[in-house]
Design a protein that fits this description.
56% strand, globular, 18-stranded antiparallel barrel, mainly beta, 360 residues
């Protein structure tokens, strides 16, 4: 049986601080209800395909005490039908306490640590595993202790993750035991204001989120800034497993908003051949996004992904209707021209979908 004393201790401390905070300050409760229906369209008889429905409810509690302590907790409940049947689950999506004293900040509990400047793709986002159900969406929160300290134009960050949490748990593969020796950690130093750019160096020591869970060390670089009205970024990571296997992951891009309010993104993403998902070949991808808000109630977006090596591509148009304050209806589709030969495009399913979101 795995030793779970470190996560339990973190949870106990969060609960203790939560009781202190809530007794000293009024809590603010908010939430979101999302209902999504998806129809696969990957074959000629798609009209006969089974619908997939997913309902998700999030309840968030935020409270502050004395300006030095802050509590944030999110309860998430999901349920599904059709091909999403079996998705029923209830649990804490996030639950942490923030403490601040001068230029030092501490965060303890289940959290997401957002590192990196790339659009939807972040090679230096070392801490949280990718959500396999939504690889480009929000990553999975982990129990951790994170700290930040600011010194003039320098920012130092450190994260300790006591228990390795992979994106997918393989029952037949033993995971690293939850001991202090096996704890993961990440460090980052950021220098602001270098000719209009911020530069970050980061380091990670932990476990690979792949079958057999090999140990890995990563070194990351992130540059983000602006030239004129255009935003620019360059982000990359070099990794070395305990076995000696080495690989890199790099993304570079720019964004710009026209005078007419059209938001544009262009990005290039590269995986070296030895990357765990590259399947032995160098992988290059071009990513483009265009988004425009029309009036007060409609936003149109078109995203495209092109695999340079094999010529596979995906087109993802989407319309968002603002029906009322806090109520949005999203309708879209995903169309993959080939997709079977490329490891990333293989994860994009041909489908049409509609999602209704109510925030309160």
């Amino acid at each position: 049986m795995r030793n779970r004393w470190l996560p339990v201790t973190l949870g106990a401390v969060v609960v203790l601080w939560a009781s202190v905070v809530v007794t000293q300050a009024a809590a603010n409760v908010s939430g979101e209800l999302a209902l999504k229906v998806t129809l696969p369209t990957g074959d000629d008889s798609w009209v006969d395909n089974q619908l997939a429905g997913l309902s998700e409810l999030k309840l968030a509690v935020d409270a502050e005490a004395g300006g030095a302590a802050y509590l944030h907790a999110v309860l998430r409940a999901t349920d599904g039908y059709g091909s999403s049947a079996g998705a029923a689950a209830v649990g804490l999506d996030e639950a942490y306490v923030d403490l601040a004293r001068g230029d030092l900040t501490l965060r303890l509990g289940k959290q997401r640590v957002l590192w990196g400047s790339g659009y939807k793709v972040n090679p230096t986002s070392f801490v949280n595993p990718v959500n396999p159900e939504d690889p480009l969406g929000e990553r999975t929160a982990v129990s951790a202790l994170s700290a930040g300290y600011a010194v003039r134009d320098l920012r130092l960050n450190a994260v300790l993750i006591p228990e390795f949490k992979p994106a997918v748990v393989l029952g037949s593969v033993p995971m690293p035991s939850s001991t202090l020796e096996n704890a993961e950690y990440a460090l980052k130093v950021t220098k602001r204001g270098i000719a209009g750019f911020d530069a970050s160096l980061s380091y990670y020591h932990g476990w690979e989120d792949q079958p057999t869970y090999p140990g890995v060390n990563r070194l990351g670089l992130d540059l983000v800034g602006a030239v004129g009205d255009a935003g620019l970024w360059l982000e990359g990571a070099a990794s070395k497993q305990q076995s000696g296997r080495e690989y890199t992951e790099i993304v570079a891009g720019a964004d710009y908003t026209t005078n007419g309010g059209l938001y544009l993104v262009g990005q290039y993403y590269v995986l070296s051949p030895d990357h765990p998902v590259a399947e032995g070949k160098k992988r290059d991808y071009a990513i483009v996004v265009g988004r425009k808000t029309v009036g007060d109630h409609l936003t149109a977006q078109v995203s495209g992904l092109y695999a340079v090596a094999g010529g596979d591509s995906a087109l993802l148009p989407e319309l968002t209707f603002n029906l009322a304050d806090g109520t949005n209806l999203v309708m879209g589709l995903a169309s993959v021209t080939k997709g079977t030969s490329d490891p990333l495009l293989r994860q994009v399913a041909n489908q049409v979908y509609a999602k209704l979101t109510l925030s309160f």
